[in-house]
């Protein structure tokens, strides 16, 4: 496959748009307004960010493709150092960014990259096994540690983040995108990137199995919730039933990982097909270019997007209608900015800085 695959850029653009929708909703505390718009926004919660991490794993595979399986220790060492440098840079940027945006994902990304630096040379089956183990470690940790510690669910604020114990707990176990189990998405993405995605048979097989996994997981846990009911039979509260038997992002139990991971594959395969079928479409080209500036747009949606909303006094306690309208305006602006910028430069501003520092 080509080093720059339009389908992946298209998927990155959609992932960024989904994250903008979710994060604007969170920042604005948009819990009122049109019911259907609320349901629409809910479709992206925990899904857009999962797709983004899977794509990062695919990117790691492309980055290390030339040396994977090589006996040249020097080249392997250079790629490992490159991943470590990128991971450390993401951790640094993310921790600086966290006081501005508490739900930052970049510092978590950094730790995923450190894991990738260790395992990128492993075989396909080993990657799938590691991904499964990372996913399953999380519920084990829940048996020994309090997942809700430091959380104020009413405001989604995390206390004691800057303490040693709080930061370790947040990054490893109960933050917004903790290593366990979120690193499973990146490791799975590394495996996915090794598949021959230019082959339609491979794509179709992935699409079918992902759809089956998604439907079985969602329907299966919907059925479990209906059986458990209000939880009285198991001496549980309705909130505890929802907490343990839902496929939502909080807590990120294995059923969430399976559901979000499979939906990410469905979207990715669909993007690969769409980018080929509509290769001459202007909209497709615009979206692919937007996906190339994903890091820049991620930071910009907080600093510029939310910053402007805060400046005009419209950041907090807004309706879902206004939240989605604001997200739409930002996304359109992001597309326009990407088109103009890439006419003048080869890569996005933050992407260029990132590569210069960590290369």
From TrEMBL:
Domain named DUF418: residues: 262-358
Transmembrane segments: 7-26, 46-63, 83-100, 106-122, 127-147, 167-194, 206-224, 253-274, 295-312, 324-345
Domain Heparan-alpha-glucosaminide N-acetyltransferase catalytic: 4-199
A Pfam family assignment: DUF418
UniProtKB keywords: Membrane, Transmembrane, Transmembrane helix
PANTHER family linked to this entry: HYPOTHETICAL MEMBRANE SPANNING PROTEIN, INNER MEMBRANE PROTEIN
Name of the protein described by the UniProt record: Putative membrane protein YeiB
Species in which this protein is naturally found: Marinomonas rhizomae
């Amino acid at each position: 496959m080509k080093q720059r695959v339009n389908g992946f850029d298209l998927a990155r653009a959609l992932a960024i748009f989904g994250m903008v929708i979710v994060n604007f909703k969170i920042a604005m505390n948009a819990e009122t307004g049109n019911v259907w718009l609320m349901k629409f926004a809910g479709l992206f919660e925990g899904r857009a960010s999962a797709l983004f991490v899977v794509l990062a794993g695919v990117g790691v595979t492309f980055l290390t493709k030339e040396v994977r399986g090589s006996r040249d220790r020097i080249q392997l060492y250079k790629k490992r150092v490159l991943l470590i440098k990128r991971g450390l840079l993401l951790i640094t940027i993310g921790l600086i960014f966290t006081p501005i945006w508490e739900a930052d994902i970049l510092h978590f990304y950094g730790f995923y990259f450190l894991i990738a630096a260790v395992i990128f040379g492993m075989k396909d089956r080993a990657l799938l096994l590691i991904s499964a183990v990372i996913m399953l470690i999380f519920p084990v940790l829940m048996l020994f540690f309090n997942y809700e510690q430091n959380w104020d669910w009413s405001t989604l604020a995390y206390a004691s983040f800057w303490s040693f114990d709080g930061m370790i707990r947040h990054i490893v176990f109960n933050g917004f995108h903790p290593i366990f189990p979120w690193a499973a998405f990146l490791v799975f993405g590394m495996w996915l990137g090794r598949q021959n995605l230019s082959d339609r048979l491979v794509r179709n097989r992935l699409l079918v199995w992902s759809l089956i996994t998604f439907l079985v997981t969602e329907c299966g846990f919907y059925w479990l919730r209906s059986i458990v009911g209000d939880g009285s039979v198991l001496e549980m509260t309705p909130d505890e039933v929802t907490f343990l038997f839902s496929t939502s992002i909080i807590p990120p139990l294995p059923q969430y990982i399976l559901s979000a991971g499979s939906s990410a594959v469905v979207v990715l395969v669909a993007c690969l097909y769409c980018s080929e079928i509509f290769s001459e479409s202007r909209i497709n080209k615009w979206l692919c270019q937007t996906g190339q500036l994903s890091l820049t747009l991620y930071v910009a949606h907080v600093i510029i997007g939310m910053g402007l909303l805060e400046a005009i006094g419209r950041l907090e306690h807004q309706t879902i209608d206004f939240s989605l309208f604001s997200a739409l305006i930002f996304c359109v602006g992001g597309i326009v900015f990407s088109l103009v910028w890439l006419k003048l430069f080869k890569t996005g501003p933050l992407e260029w800085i990132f590569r210069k520092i960590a290369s």
